[in-house]
Amino acid sequence: MSTIRYPASNDLRDLVRFSEKDGTIWLGESRMVLMHTSALGSLRKELVGSVGKEHARRLLTRMGYAAGARDAELAKRIRGERSLTDAFFTGPQLHMLEGIVRVTPISLSMDIEKGHFAGAKAQAGK
Fold it and tell me: Ramachandran region of residue 55, left (φ > 0), alpha (ψ -120 to 50) or beta?
C-alpha cells in the first residue's frame, strides 16, 4: 500500500469549465473534448489498417507527446512555485482528471542537483 499522498487537486479541478452555451469544455486555457474511449479505439484500429502499425504508433506517440507538453506547461503555470513533489504530481493528477488513467504512487525520490529520479507507480483503469 502506498504511503505517498497527492497534494489536494482543487487547484486543478477548478480549471475545468463546461460551457453549454457554446458547447465547449476547457482545462485552463486549453479546449478539451469529451469522447468515448470506444471511438478512440476505432480511430486507432483505422489508423493501423490505413497506415500500418509502426506509422500509427508514431502518430499516436506524437499526439501523446503534444498533450503531455500542454499538461507540463499547465503544471508549471499552476504549481511551478510549489514543492518539487507537488509540481511533479501535477502530471498524474491531470491524467486522472482527464480520464486517461488512475495512478497510485508507490515510491518517489528526486534530487535535481544530483540529477537523480526514481519512482514507482501502480496503474489501473486504462
Answer: alpha
SS3 46: helix
User: pLDDT (tens digit, 9 = 90+) per residue, 31-74?
Assistant: 999 999 999 999 999 999 999 999 999 999 999 999 999 999 99
Is there a contact between 39 and 45 (Cβ–Cβ < 8 Å)? no
From the list 74, 119, 80, the residue with the least C-alpha distance to 95 is 74
Residue ranges per structural domain of the chain: 10-100
Cα distance between the two ends of the chain = 20
| Run of H or E including 61 | helix 53-79
Say what the pTM is. 0.78
